[in-house]
Design goal:
It contains six helices and eight strands. The relative contact order is 0.08. α4 packs across α5. The protein has a domain of 121 residues: endopeptidase fold (from Nostoc punctiforme). Helices cover 53% and strands 13% of the residues. By secondary structure, it is α+β, with helices and mostly antiparallel strands. It has a six-stranded antiparallel beta sheet with strand order 3-8-4-5-6-7, sandwiched between helices. It has a two-stranded parallel sheet with strand order 1-2.
Length: 299
């Protein structure tokens, strides 16, 4: 009787590399046992002619395993890339929102600064206008007080003999206001009138912008006469003259003689030239427009 051995092949899904190795080891053990049994059988036993069918686990499952590993690695890489892109998108959105908030805050700050500057300029303009109005009112009040004091003094010293002076020893108001300047007075008047239209700048000494005392100083310099720079120092020089006896070239002042805050040059004809303020610049005005407090004569 022929002894044959047949080992059926049972294939199951490969679960892991460790299980595959274990199964290979078991199969090897079985084959070794069969070989030993065959060698120990009868001498006349017929050789085993049937082929033992073994599963080709190595080549097939190794390829599937490599493919699975590669697919898993590719999936993991794609997931990592997706997460990286999502992180970049979130960071970009957060940065854009932060930049937008910063730009809005800067725009709001600039707008607020512009509003504050406009309000400041408006307040400054209103303050200047109020100061100029108060200055004119103060000059008018001082002029009225001087006129009242002058009238009182004249009435107390005149007992009605004023008519004796009609043939007169002195010049009338009209004569004193219309007489033409000459000599140094003409130089002073011509220089002052030549600056009419120039701008007013605090501390200005020419040639195209002036303040009140800077203009008076330059006009007298044109006649070869040096004056101090400050208005109250200029009005303190020379001799005091009545506003009814003005001559071209006299210095008009506003305020007290030793504390004047504004000066100008009398040019004759009841007019003066002065650097008034930043709104008017250098102008020629009638004495009635802004009556001075007094006058001094240096020539």
């Amino acid at each position: 009787m022929s002894h044959t051995a047949h080992i059926p092949s049972h294939r199951k899904p490969r679960r892991s590399a460790s299980k595959l190795a274990l199964r290979a080891g078991v199969a090897g053990g079985v084959l070794g046992t069969i070989a030993v049994a065959g060698a120990a059988g009868p001498a006349n036993a017929e050789p085993v002619t049937e082929t033992i069918e073994m599963p080709t686990l190595g080549s097939l499952d190794a390829g599937n395993l490599a493919s699975a590993v590669a697919a898993s690695a590719e999936t993991s890489q794609q997931e990592a890339l997706d997460q990286s892109l999502q992180s970049l998108e979130r960071a970009a959105l957060e940065k854009a929102a932060k930049d937008a908030r910063k730009a809005k805050a800067e725009a709001d700050r600039k707008a607020e600064a512009e509003r504050a500057e406009k309000a400041r300029l408006k307040a400054e303009q209103e303050r200047k206008e109020a100061e100029e109005a108060a200055e004119r009112a103060s000059r008018s009040e001082e002029r009225a007080q001087l006129s009242t004091a002058s009238t009182t003094a004249t009435n107390s010293s005149d007992d009605g003999g004023s008519s004796s002076s009609d043939g007169g020893s002195g010049a009338s108001d009209d004569d004193s206001r219309t007489q033409a300047p000459s000599g140094s007075a003409a130089s002073i008047v011509d220089f002052a009138r030549a600056q009419v239209g120039d701008s007013y700048v605090t501390g200005g000494t020419g040639p195209n912008s002036w303040d009140c005392s800077g203009l008076v100083q330059a006009a007298y310099r044109a006649a070869g006469i040096d004056l101090p720079r400050i208005s109250y120092e200029q009005s303190s020089m020379g001799s005091s003259v009545s506003l009814d006896s003005l001559q071209p070239g006299d210095i008009l002042y506003w305020g007290s003689r030793s504390g004047s805050y504004h000066v100008a040059v009398y040019v004759g004809g009841g007019k003066y030239v002065g650097a008034q303020n930043s709104s008017t610049g250098v102008v020629e005005r009638s004495l009635d427009w802004d009556p001075p407090s007094g006058a001094v004569r240096i020539l």
